[in-house]
Design brief:
- The complex is a heterodimer of chains A (99) and B (161).
- Helices cover 44% and strands 18% of the residues of chain A.
- With 99 residues, chain A is α+β, with helices and mostly antiparallel strands.
- Chain A has one domain: Ribosomal Protein L30, Chain: A (2-Layer Sandwich).
- A three-stranded antiparallel sheet of chain A has the order 2-1-3.
- In chain A, helix 2 packs across helix 3.
- Chain A is globular.
- Chain B has 161 residues and is an alpha+beta fold.
- Chain B has one domain.
- Chain B has a four-stranded antiparallel sheet with strand order 1-2-4-3.
- In chain B, helix 1 packs across helix 4 and helix 3 runs antiparallel to helix 4.
- The longest helix of chain B is centred in the middle third of the chain and has 28 residues.
- The radius of gyration of chain B is 18 Å and the shape is globular.
- The chains are: A alpha+beta (99), B alpha+beta (161).
- At the A-B interface, helix 2, helix 4 and strand 3 of A face helix 2, helix 3 and helix 4 of B.
Chain lengths: 99, 161
C-alpha cells in the first residue's frame, strides 16, 4: 500500500462496542495490497462505515502493517453488504467465519 | 487539477487542457478490473458459498453496467467542461464523487492487474525494453492514481463546515 499519510495515534475500541456485534458470526476483513493508496483506503472506510478519520486510519494502518484488519463482526447479511460496499471501491475485502 | 471554488452542492474544479483530455481518457477505460475478480471469502463459509458468490458477482456486474453508462452520459453532457482562461472548469456535484472515485480506482487496479499484479509496484525504468502495452498499463495505473489522489485532496480541502 503506497504510504501517503502521516502517522496517527491508534484508535482505542470502547467497551460500548455492542455484545451483539461481538457475538455475530462473520468478520469483514480487509487485506493488504500494494495498489490501493493509504489515503484512499481511509476514505473508503469512513464512507462505508461512517467512522471518524482516526478510527479509519487505525484500521488502514493495521491492514498496511499486519497484512489485514478485521473491520467489523456482523451477521451474514450485513457482513455481505459491507464486503460488497468495499469491493465497489475495489478494495481487497472478504467475509470470513468468526472461529 | 485543482479546486477553484467549493459550494454546498458542488466543487468547481479547474483543469488544464491536457488534464481534461487525460481525465476523459482514463474514465473511458472503465471497467478495467475483470469480471469475477472479487472473491467473497478466502475460506469455506457454508454449503451455500457458490450461491453467495454468484450473488456478489451479479451485484458487482450490475454496478459495472450502471457505472459504465454513467461515465458515458457524464462525459457526453454538453458544457460539462467550461472553457476558461488557462484551461477548463467543471462543476462536480458532491453526490458524484463516490462513483467517480470508484471508477478511477477500478482503472488503477485493473491496470495493475494487467501488469501481472506486481508487488512492489514497478518503477518506470523497470519497463524499459518491455512491450509497449505494458508501458501503457503502467502509465494508466499512475495517471488514474494521480487523479484519484487529487480528487481526494480536493474533497478534503473543499469540505464546508
Amino acid at each position: 500500500m503506497p504510504d501517503t499519510t502521516p502517522v496517527v495515534l491508534p484508535d482505542i475500541e470502547t467497551e460500548a462496542e455492542s455484545r451483539s456485534e461481538l457475538d455475530a458470526g462473520y468478520l469483514v476483513v480487509c487485506w493488504d495490497d500494494p495498489i490501493n493508496y493509504m489515503d484512499f483506503v481511509t476514505h473508503v472506510f469512513q464512507q462505508v462505515f461512517g467512522w471518524p478519520r482516526q478510527k479509519a486510519e487505525f484500521h488502514m494502518r493495521q491492514v498496511h502493517h499486519e497484512g489485514r484488519s478485521i473491520l467489523v463482526r456482523e451477521g451474514l447479511e450485513k457482513a455481505e453488504f459491507y464486503v460488497h460496499q468495499l469491493q465497489k471501491f475495489t478494495l481487497h475485502a472478504t467475509l470470513e467465519r468468526d472461529s | 487539477m485543482k479546486l477553484f471554488r467549493a459550494t454546498q452542492p458542488a466543487l468547481i474544479i479547474q483543469f488544464s487542457a491536457d488534464e481534461r483530455r487525460m481525465f476523459a481518457d482514463v474514465l473511458l477505460e472503465y471497467p478495467a478490473v475483470p469480471e469475477a475478480h472479487q472473491q467473497l471469502s478466502r475460506s469455506r463459509l457454508s454449503p451455500n458459498d457458490d450461491e453467495h458468490q454468484q450473488l456478489l458477482d451479479e451485484a458487482l456486474a450490475a454496478q459495472r453496467a450502471e457505472l459504465r453508462e454513467k461515465v458515458q452520459l457524464w462525459l457526453k453532457t454538453p458544457k460539462r467542461f467550461r472553457r476558461v482562461k488557462g484551461g477548463f472548469n467543471f462543476a462536480l456535484l458532491r453526490t458524484d464523487t463516490a462513483w467517480l472515485l470508484q471508477v478511477l480506482n477500478d482503472v488503477r487496479v485493473g491496470s495493475w492487474l494487467r501488469l501481472g499484479a506486481p508487488d512492489p509496484l514497478p518503477e518506470i525504468d523497470e519497463l524499459f525494453g518491455q512491450p509497449r502495452e505494458r508501458f501503457q498499463h503502467w502509465v494508466l495505473m499512475e495517471v488514474a492514481g494521480r487523479f484519484q489522489m487529487q480528487l481526494l485532496h480536493i474533497l478534503q480541502s473543499g469540505s464546508i463546515a
